[in-house]
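In this supplementary section we document a worked example of the pipeline. Step one takes a protein sequence of length 283 as its only input; no multiple sequence alignment statistics are reported here. Step two produces a three-dimensional model, which step three serialises into structure tokens for compact storage. The input and output of this example are shown verbatim.
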Amino acid sequence: MEMEDQMESQKRRGISKDQLISERTGSLGCIGWFIVILAGFFTMIFFPITIWFCLKIVQEYERAVIFRLGRITDRKAKGPGIFFVLPCTDSFVKVDLRTVSFDIPPQEILTKDSVTVMVDGVVYFRVSDPISAVANVSNADSSTRLLAQTTLRNVLGTKNLAELLSDRDSIAHSMQSNLDEATDNWGITVERVEIKDVKLPHQLQRAMAAEAEATREARAKVISAEGEMNASRALKEASLVIAESPSALQLRYLQTLSTIATEKNSTIIFPLPMDMISHFMRK
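The serialised model returned by step three reads:
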């Protein structure tokens, strides 16, 4: 907290983070240099033995932040490869630069339209500034996890249920921006945030299912009514065409008889010539 307050006060006075790190890695003083020289002197005397305590190795994906008498020795972390430390005066902290992912535990969230849902997610982040990750926060991983939970509740609390279900990409992007801005002083870059699952109450699930079913039934009735209307218009046009040509009516009559004859039924139909019933049709 003291370090963050110091950085905040320095920012108010217009001092950059690099200048603040420079102040933090300042001179050791007369007593400090005397102790360092004394440690180096004993290191040279016992050189065959102390060589095993002076040489350290970090991997390609790691960096080492070296502290000399409690102060960071350089504005840049060491590594990868071999680096040199003085026994008794120097200590170092290894920082992993690989991308780390963690699951956000399911959070009970009240949306803007007063619906309680359970939401969980996943966050991908990495350390971009090893010195800030060591000097500005006690546990960068744990702090990022807690901040992700709080950010998830804050962001989703401003969204409606419909937005939460349909606009997950925008919510994830908003969470990533907020997290990345908040963890910048910790030397952490949030690369990606994803919303994994949204669990609704059972009563709300049944209500939404009933609403969707009713909507589908209404759409089916509308489509059926439109089909009946189109069919009636087609029949009207066909009747007008047949009325203009009596021979077309007789051909349609014979076609109907042919269709009925091909079906397996026990009904016997005796067709009558059209000229016999034309008199009754005129009346």
